[in-house]
Every structure is written in structure tokens, then in C-alpha cells.
Amino acid sequence: MWISVPGGLEVTLTRSLPLSTWEAGILRPYGNALRDLHGIPDAVARNAADEVVLRAIAVQLGDMQAAIVEAAIRFLLRAAVSTYEGQPIHLNVLVDLALPPAPGVIADLAELQRHDWYALLGSGLETGVLVNGAGEVVRLVDVGSFELQAGESPDRLLSHAFRPIGEWTRQSGTRLALSITRGRELLVHQGGELRYVYRSGRWRGLPLDVAVRKGWSAGAGIGRPVKRAVLASLIDGSLGHHGACLGIVVRGQKTGFMGSAVLQQSDLWPDNVRAGLFGSDRFQLLSRRQRLELLSMDGATVLDHTGRILAAGAIVAVPGGSSGGGRLAATRALAAFGAAFKVSQDGPIALFGRDSEGNVELKMALA
């Protein structure tokens, strides 16, 4: 992928995962935002990288109403570094670009922010400040608790805690939801999907549907329902800042895994005392909350390629002299039997897996 900018320069963009059709929609607005820097001194342009990404995201999400989306993002970025009575602010802004201009209660979000009580509105997991297509603040909305319909999977690829907010956006392509989490991160939902996370000073895309389709390990045989259950739960762990290590033993590797000394025998299910507490030994059949508590235990969770839980809260034996910290070393040790995810305490998710020759390599990085 490349973008042409003034002066005959071309910017090449590379990624290990292919771009989905939706993700590719960022390229043109990103190129246009780069062109806006033409003629600006290099020192200034280097410091404007975040501005380029922010404007590109606003255009991708809002098209001709990008200014409304950009104003909402800037409103939340300011709120994220503010406090109310000494406590961090966490709130939601619901934008419906199809709502026509009308005499709003408040002219725009900037005016709302002049009132110190703004931090209390839309601060629940099911409430948000509604903004129309003209940027006017219309009212406070309660989106209601979310209930799964019969036969519906719980594993939509967004945070379980913010699912009511995310589901609100699924009802119309003109709806966006922007949220500040308790960890002062900014989430962007559109079309019922978690599209972007702003954390640690950087915008991060979430190519989760692409990650489901990608091979996680040579000869893995991991079905999509198991993949979606794993990814959905890792998102919960990432946004909850729990940290986690999850391994998947692929077809053809289970005998070797069970015969190895990588885990203590006492940690293996079904003999481990924890096995009887969850009601099922299939990871994908547990609720999202149960899975998060499973992943939050010290140690690793290990599944086979069908989603059957082989161990949880397990201490992983790692080779002496392993670099990069204990969780990374444990992840790589488990990946030798298929695939393994490391969720860092500060949120990023990394997948390691076997290549065609049985070597462990980094397959992808998310969030």
C-alpha cells in the first residue's frame, strides 16, 4: 500500500495482516491529511503525526460530517486528562449523524464542557450524551441493558462491559459511540464493532475480523467459534488491564504437550480443583465474565483446538535465560505446541504461533 504526497514523494504502508474493506477506508483520508502538511516545516510536521491520524479517522467515520466527529473526539481527549473532584472522568458520547439540526439544549460539546457537571452525564456503562448531525447536544440517553437474543453468540468482537453502547451503534450506519474508560482510554464503536482504541498516546486499529480469518499456527485446525471466543475474551482482558496468557494446543500436538513438563500435572484439568467450579470444560461455552475471571488468575490458561480447557491458572516452565519477561517467555513456550496470546498489563495483545517448520514466530499484534 502506498500514498502519493506533494513533491513526488510516496509513503509506503505495510502490515502483517491484510486490510479489510472497512479498514482500507482510512487510506484516502490519511493521504489527504498528510497532504495538508505540505510546506509546513519538518519539525512541526513531525509533531503533527497524531493530528494526521485523528483527522483521517474523523473523515473515515463521518465523511462530510467529519468536523462533528473530530469535535467529539477532541472533547473526550480533553476530558480524559481532566478530573472531577479528584477522580478520573469516564463518559460516553453518542453521535447520530442522521439526526437533523434542531434547537439543541446546548449548542455543542465545547459549551457543555464549560459546566463542571458535564463529567457526570453519560458516565454509566449504559448512558451517553446524544449529539446530532449538527454537533448540538440533544439529550442524555439511556441505551438500556443488553440482552442476548435466542441463538445469538456472546462473542461479538467488542468489550463486554461496553456492549450496550456498542450495540446502540449497530442499529444504524450513521451512529458512533465514543467512550472514555476507567483506564483513560478512548474507544470508538461504529456498526456494532470496536473500531479504534486510543491508548498510551497512540491510535490503534483493531482488525479483529481479519484476525479471526488469519491462520494462528501451522496446521492449527482451530474453528472460528473458538477463535471468536478467544479474541472476545482477550479484548475484555486488554481493556480491563488484567494481563493474560492463553495457549492453544493444535491438532497433532496434544500428545507431545501432555507428555512435556511445560505444566505441572496438578494444574491440568479435569483433576484440578478449579475444573469443577465453572460448569463446563469448553471455553466457548462459558460466559464472557467467567472467561475473564479464568484469564485473570495468575498463570496461563491452555485450550486444545476444539476449545476444551486443558489447564487454567497454570505455572509454565520456561527455558533458563529466556528474555523479555516471564509472561512473554511463558507465551512462547506454549506457542511451541500451537499458538499462544500474551496480553500485557497495559493492554496490547500479541499472538505467537508455529511456522511450517515448527519454529515459534510473532504472528500478529493487536490493540
Can you tell me about this structure?
The protein has 367 residues and is an alpha+beta fold. The chain folds into two domains: 46-206, YojJ-like (1 (3-Layer(aba) Sandwich); 210-366, DNA integrity scanning protein, DisA, N-terminal domain (YojJ-like (1). The protein is 29% helix and 23% strand. A seven-stranded mixed sheet has the order 7-6-5-8-9-10-11. Strand 13 and strand 14 (309-314) form a beta hairpin. Helix 2 packs across helix 4 and helix 4 crosses helix 5 (66-80). It is globular and about 70 Å long.
Q: Biggest β-sheet: count, sense, barrel?
A: 7 strands, mixed
Q: Remind me, CATH topology of the largest domain?
A: YojJ-like (1
Helix and strand run? EEHHHHHEEEHEEHEEEEHHEHHEEHEEE
CATH hierarchy class name of the largest domain: Alpha Beta
Tell me which CATH architecture of the largest domain applies here. 3-Layer(aba) Sandwich
Number of domains: 2
What proportion strand? Answer: 15-25%
Number of helices: 12
Shape, per Cα inertia axes: globular
Average residue pLDDT: 87
Give the spatial strand order of the biggest sheet: 7-6-5-8-9-10-11
Runs in which pLDDT lies below 50 for 5 or more consecutive residues are none
Task: Compute the separation of the termini in Å.
Answer: 21 Å
The CATH homologous superfamily of the largest domain is termed DNA integrity scanning protein, DisA, N-terminal domain
